[in-house]
Amino acid sequence: MIHSAILIRPPRLVGRDSDSDYEQQMEPQAPSAEELAVWALQGAIKIRCHNFVFVTLRSSSVRNLYGVFATIKYLSCVSLLKSLYAFKYHADSGKDIPAKHFDLRTEFQRMGVGNADGVSRYWRFSESNRKFQLCATYPPLLVVPSKISDATLTYAAWYRSKARLPALCYLHPNGFSMTRSSQPMVGLKQARSVQDEKLVEAILATSEPTGTPPRFQYERNNIIIDARPTTNAVVNRAVGAGSENMDHYKRCRKVYLGIDNIHVMRDALNKLVDAIQSGDGKGEETVGVVSRIQNSKSNWLRHIANILEGAKAIVEAIDGGNHVLVHCSDGWDRTAQLTSLAQLCLDPYYRTISGFATLVEKEWVSFGHQFTLRGGYLGHPDRFKVTRAASPKASSKSHMSRRGELTGDSASIASSSNENGTDENVASEAASDFDTLLQTGTSMFGRFATRAFRGVQSRISSAIQAASDDIDDTDPFISEYPELQPNYVLPPAVDSADTADGSSTSKRSNGFRLGRPKHDHETSPVFQQFLDCVFQLWVQHPTMFEFNERFLLDLFYHLHSAQFGTFLCNNMKERSAVDLANTTTSIWAWMEQSNHVYVNELYQGDENKRDQRTIAPNPQFVQYWSAMFSGYDPAFATRQASERSSSGELLSRPGSVEQLPSTSDGHSKLVDELDSIVI
Fold this sequence. Notes:
With 679 residues, this protein is α/β, with parallel strands linked by helices. The protein contains 25 helices and eleven strands. It has helices at residues 33-40, 62-76, 85-92, 104-111, 150-158, 194-204, 230-235, 262-276, 289-295, 300-319, 334-346, 353-366, 371-375, 393-403, 409-415, 424-439, 444-470, 476-480, 506-509, 526-540, 549-559, 572-577, 580-583, 587-592, 634-647; strands at 2-9, 44-49, 54-57, 123-126, 142-145, 167-171, 177-180, 222-226, 252-256, 324-327, 384-388. The strands form three sheets. A five-stranded mixed beta sheet has the order 6-7-10-8-9, with helices on both faces. A four-stranded mixed beta sheet has the order 3-2-1-11, covered by helices on one side. It has a two-stranded antiparallel sheet with strand order 4-5. Residues 15-28, 394-431, 437-442, 494-516, 631-641 and 644-679 have low confidence and may be disordered.
C-alpha cells in the first residue's frame, strides 16, 4: 500500500563549532538529552499510500527514525513477485475461501458464440494461442471470424504491435461486434498486411446475412477507434508503428479519441495528490479538498470525461448497428478502459456483481493489462528519498555571522539565497524569462522545448540540493544504512544456475547502479481511472447497477494491497508460470462471502427489458470521487451523510475509521489505517 516515503532529517544544529551536526551527539559538550529530543522531533518520515492516506511519523531519536525508514524501504521495494503478501495470505487463511475460476469459453458462449444459428455462426473459437506461441499477452482462447484460418491469424499477428491481432471481445445481441487489437506496424514506408486487411474485412462481414460484404461498399459506418491523439499516432510511425491507412480498409472509417498516454495520466495523479496535501498549516485548511484539486490544474476530470466520451462513441455505434475495432498503442491500457466501459453500458449483465467480476477478468486479466508494471508492485527504490528540514532563516544568518564567513557584499548576496547556496531570485527570473521565450512560439518544437527545459531544470536543482546537503555534513547514521543512499538498490537475487560455480559476480552484488529502472516510468493509474469512470456511470444511473459505491472502493483498496492474486502479473502467460490461480486467493471469491454488503438498494435493473438494456455515459456530468481521495469537503457532506443513513453502515475502506473533519493537513487523517497497511 505504500507508494513512497521521505525521510526528513532534522535541520543542522547552528551556533556550534563542529561542522558535523550528528557527531555532536557523541561529543562531551553535546546538548542535553532533552534538547536533542526536541531537535530530533523536527525530523520526520512522511509516507504516501496508494489509497491517498498520508502518514507522518516522528521520533525523539534520530537513530530510530533512520531504522524505521530503512525497514519501510526494505519491505516496500521487493524484487520478487512471490515476496508479495498475496502468497502468504493464501497460505495462512486464503485456502479457507472457496476457489473461483473464470472460464473465457463460457462467457463467449453466453454471448452466443458457437451457436449453429444466427449471426453467431460466423464466429469460431481458435486455440492457435493455447501455448502463447501466437501472442504472449493474449489469452489461450481467441474468438475470430469463421472464414479466417489459423494460418492467416499468424501472418496477421506479425503486422500488429506485440502480435495483438484483432480479436472479438464482445458480441451484441443485434449481431454487431466489438473487437480489440494493438496498433498496426505501418512505419514510414506505409507497410501493409493483406492478412490483417482480410481479418478486419471478415469481422465487418459477420453481421451480413450471407457472411460476405455486399457488392456496393459505399457505407462507412463501421468504426476503427484509435484512442490516441492524432499527433501521437503520427509520431509512432518513426518507430515503425502508426495507424491504419484507410485506403486499404473498406467499409469503415477511423476516429481518433485524443486520450493521453500513461505518462500524462501519472503526472495528472501526482498533481492531484499534491493538491490534496497542499493545506499543511499555510492558512489553506479552510479551503476544501475539491477546491484545491480544481485549482491544481491536474486535468483529472478532463481525462475522465475524454474516456467516457470515447466509450459513448462505441456504445452509440454498436447499438446503432455497426462494428467497432478499438486499439491504442499496445492495446492493454486505453483499449481495456474503452472496451470494458462500453460493455458495461451495453450489457446489463456486466452491471451485476458477478457480471462485473467477469468483465474485469475478461477485458483486463485475460487480455493482458500489465497490473504489476502499472501498479508498481516491485522495486521503485527512487520513491524513498532522504532530505533535510530547512533551518530557520534567523538562526542561519546568526550562525553565518558568528563564523565570519560572509561579510560586505557577500552577506547581501546570501540574504537572497537559500541554505544550499543557490540564488533563488536570479534562477527563478532566468527560468521564467526562458519559459516565456519558449512559450511565445506556437510550434510543436517550442512546446516540446519548454517541457524539456523544465525537466532538466528540475533534475539539476535536485542534484545541486542533494550535493549541497552532503558538503561538510558527516552523517554517522548513513554509514549504518547504506541502502538509504540515492544510488543504492538491493542486490538482485542470483540463482546457482546463473554462474558455473553457483556464485555471483561482484558487478551484480555491489548493490549500486546509476540511472533509474525502466519500470519506474511504466506506472500509471489506468485501472484506477476505469474505476473512477464506473463511479461516474454509477452516479449518473443509480438504479442500473447491482453494486454500490463501497464495492468500487474495496476494489480500489485491494488493487494496491497485494492481498489477492487477481491484480498481479502482467498477462496470462505470467500468471500460468507462477500458478497464480492455486497459490493466491481471488478477490471475487473473498467478496462473494459478504455480497450483501455490496448490494445497491436502489437497483432496479432487469436485463429482460429492452428499454433498460443500454445506458449512455454523460461526459458533461462528472465529479470528483471524494470517497476515493479520502477528502473532506463541505460540498459532499450532505450526500455522504444521506448515503450513510440510508445504508445504515459506514462507507469506508477496510480497516479504516470514519472520516474525520478537516485537519491542518487539509485532508482526512485515517489514523487506524496504519494498522491495516500491508507492505
